Amino acid sequence: MRIGSRTSGVSPRVEPVPSPVIEAADLVKTYQSTNAVDGISFEVAPGESFGLLGPNGAGKSTTMRMVGAVSTRTSGRLSILGLDPNEHGPEIRSQLGVVPQTDNLDTELRVRENLLVYGRYFGIPRAVVAKRADELLEFAQLSDRAKAKVDDLSGGMKRRLTIARALVNDPRILLLDEPTTGLDPQARHILWDRLFRLKEQGTTLLLTTHYMDEAEQLCDRLVVVDKGAIMAEGSPASLIKEYSTREVVELRFGSERNQEAATTLQGVGERIEVLPDRVLIYAHDGEAALNEAIHRKLEPITSLVRRSSLEDVFLRLTGRSLIE
Amino acid sequence: MSVVASRVGVSTASVVDFDRSRRWGAWYVAEHELRRIPGYKWSMLATAIGSPLLYLLAFGVGLATLIKTGGTAGIDGVSYAQFVIPAFLCAGAVGTATEEFTFGVLLGFKWNETYLGMNAGPITPRQIAGGHILFTVIRMTITSGIFLAIAMAFGAIRFPQGLLVLPIAVLGGLAFGIPIAAYSTTIREDRGQFAVIGRTIVLPMTLFSGTVFPITQLPIWLQWIGWISPLWHSTQLSRVAAYGHVEPGWLTLVHVVVLLALIVVGALIQVRLTVKRLNR
Description:
The structure holds two protein chains of two kinds.
Chain A (H helix, E strand, L loop, with lengths): L21 E10 L2 E11 L4 E5 L6 H8 L7 E6 L4 H9 L2 E4 L11 H10 L5 H14 L15 H12 L6 E5 L7 H16 L3 E6 L2 H7 L2 E6 L2 E6 L1 H8 L3 E6 L5 H7 L6 E4 L4 E5 L2 H10 L6 E6 L2 H9 L6
Parallel strand pairs in A: 3-7, 3-8, 5-6, 6-7
Antiparallel strand pairs in A: 1-2, 1-4, 8-9, 10-12, 10-13, 11-12
Chain B lengths: L1 H4 L12 H17 L6 H29 L10 H32 L2 H7 L4 H29 L11 H21 L7 H15 L12 H9 L1 H14 L5 H30 L2
């Protein structure tokens, strides 16, 4: 036994602050004969908050698993903290915090115990884990639930506990796969606040989402992913600027009349998009476009002028909505 | 709050000790599973204490009188209770192992998904498989240890040679359980496979492994069940330790080799399948 001889380790050390912390080039993952991820390339700098935005089945989670060093890539290059996950999976994983799409907390343990057992996996001494567990419960606003059963927590609380667990090793990168999917609006806002604090403190975040508002709030930079490939890359603001107009008018005429109304609207704004339930006018000045529509004797059931969002970027790039 | 606050602008030394995690990962997995015991300690203890008492009562007092009136002085030169108790101890260990290596394994992969959580951290599939085996060894040692202490207190197993029954029973549990764990690792959907294992493998094995009567009482075309049964090998070995059952030296060696071979081959397959299943 070589108990305690820490100098004998021959494993390559994770180098201090390499830049970038994630480098993916032509990343491919094939299941049977379909490419779930089909040639994705991106880089994430230390301290950056980077997002993968796309609909369900776009290949976001598969990419996350490869970055998380639990799924072997089919081809391409991938480097996490300067190491290849094919060679150094456990070393890389010891420096990551992972929040999976579905919480995999141990439901047979109490809330605080989940943090205690998890911290041990990283070789953290018992006393240190105990102290961190208390601090993280406070961060996750779960201190008063320390002894509760996991199953008695609400969805939002479970999510926050999973995030607390992911932070137990003070990770260099935090991976969040659909962090707020399935939560009610209030729970989402609490979670966003916690994640925003982490971002402010310089934690590197990689997150997937199909919520545009989540991407806009949390991501410095993001890629729009569809069918395993990257459609566009940039900051939320620059993507909106590049692929959409400043404002959007949403008009509802009833499902029978949308197409007909769109024909009448030709020439209003810069672009017209017809969806099953509404017509969108992309325009620099939304109010002016709406006035023009009314001027053309159209009587929409409802009308709304709003700012362009990443949803519009996605629609422009793929011709489909993010949430279907 | 200081956990998170401490990171601002300061290059804090990592709390992670990867070498420790690499060396002790399997133990941390076992430690995790041991923490769950308080949740089911009463049922575990009731089984551990209750079953030897029941067996002693039924076979030491009840059935034994019947066998004596039949005109024999017990079996294998000892009382019927002495003959049967080591077998039940071994069967108990097999029962615990079966539970942990069927439901316990699928719990980690599917129903409670803790294996995915461990594997998202630095814990390797090998450490997960090894840690669960380690935990099961500890659990079998606790329950079989209680059984053994009670059996010794009633004089059904001799002291101190009989202490060897404990490691033998644990070996027998692993020899049966680890190959079953490998099978459990391949199960994606629960369609009652474990109930089928219970009825078509565990039950016949328990009945025909020389537990309640010597295997030689069976017609030759049924004796093969004993020969391939880990339970027969552990039971015969434990009888040697428990009351000095006499058998040729080569046969004792065969018992040990068969048990170890099942454990080693089973563990190799189990680790391979765990690696495969966790790499998604």
